[in-house]
Automatic annotation (TrEMBL):
Coiled coil: none annotated. The lineage of its organism: Bacteria, Pseudomonadati, Bacteroidota, Bacteroidia, Marinilabiliales. Residues 41-139 form the Peptidase M16 N-terminal domain. This is Putative Zn-dependent peptidase. InterPro entries: Metalloenz_LuxS/M16 (IPR011249), MPP/UQCRC_Complex (IPR050361), Pept_M16_N (IPR011765), Peptidase_M16_C (IPR007863). Residues 186-358 form the Peptidase M16 C-terminal domain.
Length: 424
């Protein structure tokens, strides 16, 4: 029977997906392994995660450059040989350092895992930090830094982080050009030895892999020949500035970068889910209030957004945009207007339903594919949360009311409590 094309198909409520949980095992030396087997392609990802982020460094650049140097030469391989080896096997090596972790990630066909592991072992356990490669990396990073700091959006973001967290805090983007001139290779080698070892490591597997992969990992990483002292994460005081408005003048700048925000609750707080939804309404998707007003209606900017950022030791709201200087004051006025409207007028059921549909779609996308599933696990594991976090978030999306959102706006979104930074 042919369907009647004049009738729209019935709408169905999107149900929460059944999430695949990783299986946990332990290597001989105590390294935890979280293996999430999923997907159809014979591709797997291995993440070696070390507590070796900015939070642990005593001097600028230690975390990022120590991590980057892992591919620049080891006991048995030069930088060129490492690059050629991964390229030959069609594997991808990614090195990243963030606020709390330094990570070595490898994406490869499952059949090549056993060939790659000895090389990965060597660059993690026996990196030698060649002086010439270190100086080249330092020079290249400095050039990139100098170019980036000419942009008003970078100047604005750096100052905003300082206003929010205080000078010297690990979450403050306080890097300076002279920090690149004071880099002594011995400091980076010391940081590497202190943090890249078995007592400071966990391994995350995702994708398709053989049942013997944990045995292979144990062969190369399960021994006690690379022990060290486990890192302890200390709480560091946040000292936010009392300044409500900070301006950075940039000669010849055509645009002004604007950052507005404040410290909010952390991921474990019961108001977290509602604040995520409230932030989405304000500026978290293309049809958000800030976008529809300041971009679509007024035409002041190509883009404006609001994000509720969760870090291990803090959470904060940030509104970001870049506008022509002539629209700066009007943009600030309209941002305040939209925040005040959330406090004084209930969100309509029509708008709330639209946002709920968007958020459910984003919720499903977060678990689309094995690597996304693994990252979703990391997003709770790194905060000492469990999968009930996602159950509560989904339930909040479905059940939250306009009145609840207004109460949250009244409690948290006072413009008088926010900091504004303008660079331009």
């Amino acid at each position: 029977m042919m369907p009647n094309r004049l009738l729209e198909p019935a709408l169905h409520k999107i149900e929460k997906p059944d999430l695949i949980h990783p299986a946990k095992s332990t290597l001989r030396n105590g390294i935890p392994v979280f293996a999430l087997k999923a997907g159809q392609q014979e591709v797997c990802k291995i993440d070696f995660v070390f507590e070796a982020g900015i939070w642990q460094q005593q001097k600028p650049l230690l975390a990022s450059l120590s991590n980057a140097m892992l591919q620049e030469g080891s006991k048995n391989y030069t930088a060129a040989q490492i690059a050629e080896f991964f390229d030959f096997h069609g594997a991808y090596l990614q090195l990243t350092a963030d606020y709390h972790n330094g990570t070595v990630s490898v994406i490869t066909l499952e059949k090549h895992v056993d060939k790659l592991l000895p090389v990965i072992e060597d660059l993690i356990k026996h990196s030698i930090f060649p002086s010439s490669e270190f100086q080249t990396l330092l020079k290249r990073r400095k050039q990139r830094f100098l170019l980036e700091t000419e942009k008003v959006k970078i100047l604005c973001q750096k100052k905003f982080s300082e206003v929010l967290f205080g000078q010297g805090h690990p979450y403050t983007l306080g890097l300076k050009a002279e920090d690149f001139d004071n880099g002594e290779i011995e400091d980076f080698v010391r940081f590497y030895k202190q943090h890249y070892h078995s007592k400071n490591c966990e391994i995350h597997l995702s994708g398709q892999f053989s049942d013997s992969i944990v045995d292979s990992l144990d062969k190369y990483f399960g021994s006690n020949d690379w022990e060290g002292q486990a890192t302890t994460t200390e709480t560091k005081e946040i000292i936010a500035t009392s300044e409500a408005l900070v301006r950075i003048n940039k000669e010849n700048a055509i645009q002004s970068a604007i950052r507005i925000g404040k410290l909010l609750v952390e991921k474990q707080h019961p108001d977290y889910f509602g604040l995520q939804i409230l932030t989405t309404i304000l500026g978290g998707y293309f049809s958000s209030r800030l976008m529809m007003n300041i971009r679509e209606d007024k035409g002041y900017t190509y883009g404006i957004g609001a994000n509720f950022v969760s870090l291990n030791q803090a959470g904060y709201l940030i509104i970001t945009t870049e506008v022509d200087k002539q629209y700066e004051k009007d943009t600030l006025k309209e941002i305040k207007k939209e925040i005040d409207l959330l406090r004084t007028k209930l969100v309509s059921e029509e708008e709330l339903n639209r946002v709920k549909q968007y958020l459910v779609g984003e919720f499903l996308r977060e678990f689309d594919g094995p690597f996304s599933l693994s990252q979703a696990f990391r997003n709770i594991h790194d905060f000492n949360l469990d999968y009930s976090f996602y159950d509560k978030y989904y339930e909040t999306i479905q059940s939250i009311t306009p009145q609840h959102l207004q109460n949250l706006a009244l409690k948290y979104l006072s413009t008088e409590s926010m900091h504004t930074v303008i660079a331009g």
